[in-house]
Amino acid sequence: MTVIEVNHLRKLYHGRAVVDDVSLTVEEGEIFGVLGPNGAGKTTTVECIAGLRARDSGSVSVLGLDPSADRDELRSVVGVQLQSAVLPEKIKVWEAMDLYASFYERPADWETLLDRVGLAGKRDERFGKLSGGQKQRLSIALALVGNPRIAILDELTTGLDPQARRDTWELIGRVRDEGVTIVLVTHFMEEAERLCDRLALIDSGRVVAIDSPAGLVARVERDQTIRFRPSGPLDDAVLKALPEVSDVTKSGGTLLVSGTGNLILAVSAALAEHGVSPLDLRVEGATLDDAFLALTGKTIAP
Ligand SMILES: Nc1ncnc2c1ncn2[C@@H]1O[C@H](COP(=O)(O)OP(=O)(O)OP(=O)(O)O)[C@@H](O)[C@H]1O
């Protein structure tokens, strides 16, 4: 079931279109990513979906509601976590949860929610004393306190260390498993690749492609590269003779073999035939950034 439908969305600031032509649909129960470089119009797009900004043209439907006309109804079904935390430093964790819960007719039990985001032990801590990861998890709990069917999360893990980032991804996966549809704005390729079922790549206010992460990467015709240390002597000619292999280079004791098709299978079989094992084997393929580059001529990474 489609829960969000955006058609030809356009938003101007001072006469400049920052969202120029965005069309997308989000299906119930998926994690839908909005990925693109800084300033691409991602936040503005989701703010129009959440009813926080008025669009200039185009249509937006969220669970059958129009965000610009049905704001109150929308608020009870859509939870939003925005980029910057707006809580006062001195507010305690439980006070923030209690306050946000009071905005809703049928709020979630916030004690259970705090437990789910791993903050039960911090209920009496002041917001200003929380670590970056804890603040982020609190903002996720606040976005979920109204029992939303859709959660919109903007730059979820910016500023977090790698462990806190992975913990947050795991949390979001669990929230989705409980039935909440998630729209995730990000400029982290790894986050998009690991977490999202489908992604809209956005550049300069326009959607350049929508697909699964694997589907986007598969659009890039790029050689794969395999790196390994051969366990014994091996004549390069053995590998070069394989139709899948386009190039073989040596760097110290490491071989770099590039090619297309089922390269790994072909190389492994040839090595096995010659009694050689590939040590420290690594496979490098195309990434989402390669896909973005192929589609726009630009890279997402700053
Ligand atoms: N209220 C505003 N008034 C004027 N310009 C704005 C306003 N909000 C955003 N912009 C501009 O609109 C463009 C798109 O901003 P937006 O925040 O939607 O991009 P983004 O893709 O989310 O990027 P980021 O990841 O940097 O937030 C940017 O050039 C930004 O400076």
Instruction: Tally the beta strands.
Output: 13
Heterogens: adenosine-5'-triphosphate
What share of residues are in beta strands?
25-35%
Mean pLDDT: 90
Low-confidence stretches: none
Give the class from helix and strand content and strand pairing: alpha/beta
Distance between the termini: 36 Å
CA-atom Rg in angstroms? 23 Å
How are strands sequenced across the largest beta sheet? 5-6-7-3-8-9
Q: Count of DSSP helices? A: 11
CATH architecture term of the domain at 2-77 and 148-218 = 3-Layer(aba) Sandwich
The CATH superfamily of the domain at 2-77 and 148-218 is: P-loop containing nucleotide triphosphate hydrolases
| Major β-sheet profile | 6 strands, mixed
**What would you call the shape?**
globular
Might you state the CATH topology name of the domain at 2-77 and 148-218?
Rossmann fold
**Percentage of residues in helical conformation:** 25-40%
CATH first level of the domain at 2-77 and 148-218: Alpha Beta
SSE arrangement, N to C: EEEHEHEHHHEHEHEEHEHEEHEH
Membrane topology: Peripheral membrane protein
Protein name: ABC-2 type transport system ATP-binding protein
Main location: membrane
Pfam family, one: ABC_tran
